[in-house]
Structures
1.
Amino acid sequence: MEPLKLHVGSLSSAQKEDRKKMVAALRMNPEIQKLQKKLQFSDGVLEKNTYQLLTWLKGIEKCRGCKGLNACRQKEKGYRSGLRYAGFLQEVVEACPYQVKQMKLEHHRRQYTVADMGDALLQARFEVINLQGEPDDYVRAVQETLACCRKKQGGLLYGPMGAGKTYLGACVANYVALRNGRVAFVHYPSYCERLNNEFRSGEYKEELDRLIFADLLVLDDIGAEEVNDRNRAVLLVILDRRMQDERMTWMTSNADFRALENHFLHTYKGEDRLQCARVMERIRALCRPIFVAHDDRRNLFEQEDV
């Protein structure tokens, strides 16, 4: 749209005075000051486009005090009038900050091929973890997890119940998803149940491929499932292919390597040292052990909510 041009010479003295006051008021307006700084246009442009800027201010006034998309008062929810400057001011329609955040969240969700996690874990981020006053061991675990994540290395987050292992695993998953990686976050005991229920029909194969070929796989709470020949064999297939393809793999568990080895050794049929050794060889190749020690963080959160 062409800028609105006012022919000052055709205005009466009273109109000129009113316009000077209008321009002066615009210069002092915080929203106009932010816009001028953002778009880098001169005072001359401001003076020539007074009414266009007033119209823009009127449009964004509906956004004042807005608490979110559900409270949006604009004609099209999440979108408002905007301005661009390319030698002249041009009117555009732009997404508001809440809509931008929503679009990023939806894109982030679409990066998950499997998501055994609630909305709270989808919001987990390294940058929101407040390490001030935390024990040194926990700080070290967070820092080591982030460092491995940046290097695209896998890890085994192990430690006592409630220490925050799943949350850190979700931070890893969201870190990759927000950078356009394809992510599978799987609660492993639940996956084993799905596997057993879907094995005869062959439905398990689609999810199996998602776990094998995801840029990042997080197996949450591994070691809590009941081991049988079938799920141990399928786990071996997943880990073997991911190791060959050098795909980033993370696990969370109450068990360390030694305890996991004992876990995979036994089924109701007895011991199978060969299969156990093959599984553990791949876990050790894919995952660096990171001990997560802390008081039960779930209890801490409950106390904060009281």
2.
Amino acid sequence: MLYTYPMPSPEIFHKFTALSTVAGALRRKVWIEVPEIYRLYPNQYNVLIGPPGSMKGSAMRVGQKMLMELPGFDYSADSISREKLIQDLQQSLNGGDCALTVYSSEFTSMFAISGPEMANFLTDIYESQDKWSYRLKNQASVTIVNACLNLQACTQPETMAKALPIHSVGLGLTSRIALVYAEIPRDRDWKPKKDPSQAQLRQLIVNDLQVITTLHGEFRHDEEADEFYNKWYRQHQQNPHEWTRDDRLKPYFSRKHTTVNKIAMCLSAMRRDDLIITMKELNQAFELLAEAEAVMPMAFSGFGAVSTAAPMAKIVDILSATGQPMGYSELLSYLKRDVRRQEFDECLETMVLVNQIRKVPVNGTGEPHYQITGEDNG
């Protein structure tokens, strides 16, 4: 965070880029053992979401460039089909593991070619199976051993809504993704001054990442962290959805216990080489997720929006700005390029029914006037 301080990207984007970077460096060499159930690896799916100009791509590239400097690091192309991604993952075999990090400047480009098949693959491979098999279209069989796919991507809510398979929202794939939303870049100079200490700090980070790539073995919680996590886990499993009323986020919260541990492993690796998770890592993992969860529903703002959603929002903006009742024809003139007459009437009727706006009498006029509910008649 000190290194990225001069950069304008929102702080939370840099935090999750750091997590993705360390997860990529750790690959499949470290894990948390849940006896007789599964091994949890540190790979993550982190997607930075925001409107154009929110500097999400700039934040992602900081970590991407660092990982590309590490020897033996494998990454996949920006826009790719499922078959090509499977091939890249298979060919990343090194030291007995197929570990690959995918960077995508536009997350939805991954679905442009393969659509739902890509969503199904990303869902399936997330668990880092010891062996994953697939039969290609030419009937050839592909087997990936010790898979570990780490993903960081960027997108906009509207773009995601148009391209991401709707059946995956709130279900298999998005329950495995940390949807990191932010809108406004930090207040920084457009061209930060060159500071030799920044270059030195960057080299120190890259050196530390090289050490992180050498870590190997099982992560363990110390006694205090284990007791705390176990208490939280048992309560969470009984009611995993208590923190949200958004049905699209409920599957994410059902998997939060694994996400916490994945992040905690990365935080521990940033500080020490002992493969121990302490209360410091657990607390920070919960804090990072709480920060993302506070605005996570905004990532879905483009989903489920009817064709009249944008015009209705514009009507609210216009009436709020004027503060006065506005006639039907004048209001329509503002939206004539956004909506057809029939849709305009539907907008007004819907907004009146839900008490968002109201009709108001205006003497001497022959047309209805509308005003934001709760404002004076002027």
3.
Amino acid sequence: LTKRIAELKPMPMFKNERLLNQAIKNYLHSSQSTETSAQEHLFGNGAIAELEQKIAAYYGKRHALCVANATTGLFVLALAMDLKNSEFITTPYTYGSSLASWLMLNNQVSFADIEPFTLTINPEKLRNVITKKTKAILAVDILGNPSDARALRKLAEEFGIWYIADCAQSFGAKRDGLPASHSADALVISFTSGKTLFAGEGGAVVTDNTKLYERLLFYSQHPFRQKRELGLGIVNEFAFNGRIHPLAAIWANINFEDSLARLKKHQSKCLKVINCLNQSGLIETADFRTKEIFPSFFRLTVELKNNAKSVEVEEYLIKQGFGAKTASVPISVIYQNEAFLAQYKNQFLLPKACLVAERQAKRRISLAFT
């Protein structure tokens, strides 16, 4: 605990820069040589197929489909589930892009309150919001905190609805010994800035549901790939172009294993800081290890206790040999968000107050280390 917090800084992002440069050169040379090589990504071959295999293996799932980004992944999932002019339930404590594409398809949203510890949707609160019209649950592993996937899976099966997980910030996180949101019908991860696996941009949809996977191909991939995987009679020229850029796939492949190794070190060090703060009396206890919850710590956040102030947290950490600056968490309660209200206030009835979410929005701070 006496080591300086500077050790929390991640390893250099470009540890494999030489390998990446060579892989890009090989790709460009091959693509310029023949038209077939230039079109490989349209078939989902090469680096894209390799990356999808790695992701599917990590989650222990049958299918992984790389897409342009996590938002695109959620959009094509809605198309594949025929989630249009329907109703879904999600958390009010998330970033707007989690539900943006579903709202654009004229779906109506209801909100269920969150757990104060994980900040993720509370399954018991969710039960009280489900109606006969509910078609899907959209859980979000916000700030890298894994949702209660087992409880959400049971609810989805009990009511016969989809369980989808936004895991954009939680790749590498675990709960109950399993990858975050492992039990979802489908989950979406991201490779953009700040994420565990950074490749400039990109994402993937992961699922065990073969029929859902085939519909994802139909709605998001090039006809070349549709023919290759779905059969010669399946061609949808009207698909949404949701493909990942081949260079992003190359980048992600090069950094895949190293990114997960780097994350483990980051998790270990963040847990040391939290254990230190748990002894301060300044924050609400965050007992991740006992509960077998291991976030990715996309953002390391804590809830201030009683009348504690963020400056007291900074001073305490300095005394313990850590240097840190506190800041507000850049998340507002969705149904209080001005942009959301301006665009969608006429699409739903104002929900009952989600008191836990509103409290966390006021009392939670993030830690940036020096």
4.
Amino acid sequence: EKSIPRTMWEHTMPDESPLVANEYLIMHTPSGITHDPFGNISDRFWPNIGRYDLERDEIVHLQYISESPIQILTAGGAIYMESLLNPNFKLVICTGPAGCGKTYQATSCATELCKRGDFIGVVVVPCIQGGAGTLPGNLDAKLDPDVKPIKNAIENYLIETNPTIRKKLDEFKRKGKNVRGSDIDNDRDSNQANEKSIVAKLEEMVDLTWERWFRNYHIDNIRGRSFRLRFIILDEFQDQNLRQADTLITRPNDDSKVVLTGDVGQVHANYLDRYNNGLTYACDLFKGAPMVARCHFLESENQRGALVQWVLDRKAERRGH
């Protein structure tokens, strides 16, 4: 079906909790099969995931996931990307462990939406405890170490999507595999030179992307501001206190979009814990709001590979004891 009316859902699934605004549902067959991300084109749009649309009073298909600028491999990633691309959501809250793509997806989506003209720029407010520090340079230079995760996300986005970078990487890998006999030293030197050129090109493109679309602000410099037509990324929000959280979530206008990301299991700020922090406060404050999407990644949705997954599994085992 193109959609599922709420009354039909409640009749068919009487034991389920009442649907709330923008609740996502992952449906599967009795065999447990939900989705093959490497299947045919229709599978890539995650037809087994629906969202309860309060205005239509129906469970609807994902409507924006086909516009994703990057490949999505997990159900949590599909739900998050759908929320980021949906213009009706003015706030997206994304929680979950490290390595699931919270910052990466937000940064990739922000860049694409600016390119296509939905926003005029990206506002980044890094979580900094205390003042801007004593590093030399202007405020941007002082804050640069704290926005490295965003710049790293831009770099990974370019590696995945930019044809120039992809071509250089493919050439580098191909030459490395073709090393033979007495030419091994020359080929290795050539490969090393190519590697340096890839790094230099990447750094140049990251800087160009940042300078074109991104601006970083210290929290003390946004009081009284009103951001219009901006995509606003508030990373590591679990390290903001309640006063700072209130300041940050009241800056945007209706033509802007705000993304809060973080992990309440990794609170680094003094005097805060998993129950008393900006992220937990925001999740509770906006519960059930029709213009807000809440996404949570599972530990099994880690995208950084086997080593990080092993760490997450081991931590889960220890919590169980």
